[in-house]
Predict the 3D structure of the following.
Amino acid sequence: MTINAKHPVKSLMSHTLLAPELTQQITQLFMAAGCSEVEAHQVAANLVMANLSGHDSHGVGMAPRYIDAVLEKNLIPNSQIAVRVDSGMLLGLDGQRGFGQTVGVQAMNLALDRVAQHGACIMSLAHAHHLGRIGHFAEMAVARGWVSLHFVNVMARPAVAPWHGGDGRFGTNPCCIGIPVGMGDNANEPFVLDFATSLVAQGKMRVAHNEGKTVAKGTLIDEHGQPTQNPGVVVVPQSNGKYGALMPFGEHKGFGLAVACELLGGALSGGGTWHREDDGKRAVYNGMLSIIIDPQALGTQLSFAQETLAFIEWLRHSPAAAGSGGVQLAGEPERAARSQRQKNGIVIDDATWQEIKQAGAKVGLTI
Ligand SMILES: NC(=O)c1ccc[n+]([C@@H]2O[C@H](COP(=O)([O-])OP(=O)(O)OC[C@H]3O[C@@H](n4cnc5c(N)ncnc54)[C@H](O)[C@@H]3O)[C@@H](O)[C@H]2O)c1
């Protein structure tokens, strides 16, 4: 995504915090909203990990929206998953409107137990509140040497236009694929592809709007269906009370994948698909279909490890294109951001920081 600071920058101030300090402050915020200390810390650590990974769109800037959703009573602190179907390799779970950072991890842990027993698991999770960075779940599986696929829909104001459509009809429906590379002494860092099926994530528009920046041509349409570079069209209601929309990535192909995420994450999980006008609620629900496979159970563990390694090596030997830093693989930018931000801290723009302070005030906490 190209973001240009052509427009007057709204907030020049920013706040730089080290991850432990930021985690502690956000933990206090969620405790004030009614989360147990364990849950508050789990949610805060997950959001801070998104910031560390370079995805500020899914970091602590989401906290004010979560607080609004709790106050609306549409996000229920300290919820647990409910098991609707459990037939060994198949799990049908309900997140009961709990924090995605809690119920999503519970759901994945249950699915990983099933993979250990049966070699694979198909798990659906309905009615989870925002699951945050989906790569978090794939990383749980690849850490055990397993492949992990995730199709997710977003039940909130529809922010993305269909290919050749003129208004928002569905969410930024993320798709994520985690694949371990090599094994044992020859294990490489895993491939973790994790992206919104919109051209850019909605949260990145919030960050750009808060920073007073414009975005690349072709990213957005306004409330009248006309192309625009102003990220505010998907962040705040426009003159006619309506919002603009993001474009899907990859033209008709990305649009197709977004629809598949809606149908698999929403319809197949039982969480539902979006087919109504915006109801103005602050809660964001996700439905997720996850497929996790142990290559050993498929009988290909050794060749899988060799082939993943050989193919990644092959890609790395491609000469760098002019003006580029050379080939990178999915997962690398996040790992590079983590080592840099762990050391130098996380920069929060002033508008986002003020929103976090206001969220604190709503639950009686001074930040
Ligand atoms: N829970 C939700 O409702 C929801 C909705 C949308 C997005 N998200 C999350 O938002 C996050 C950000 O999504 P995004 O679409 O903005 O991500 P993005 O456009 O930054 O793309 C991220 C993916 O591309 C890879 N990548 C980036 N640069 C690369 C390069 N030069 N070469 C090779 N690979 C590269 C990354 O490793 C990562 O896998 C994701 O974690 C996603 O799960 C969540």
Summary: Residues 186 and 309 are 8 Å apart (CA to CA). The first strand starts at residue 3 and ends at 4. Residues 55, 57-58, 130-135, 154, 172, 174, 176, 192-196, 200-201, 204, 286, 328-331, 333-334 surround nicotinamide-adenine-dinucleotide (CB under 6 Å). The radius of gyration is 20 Å.
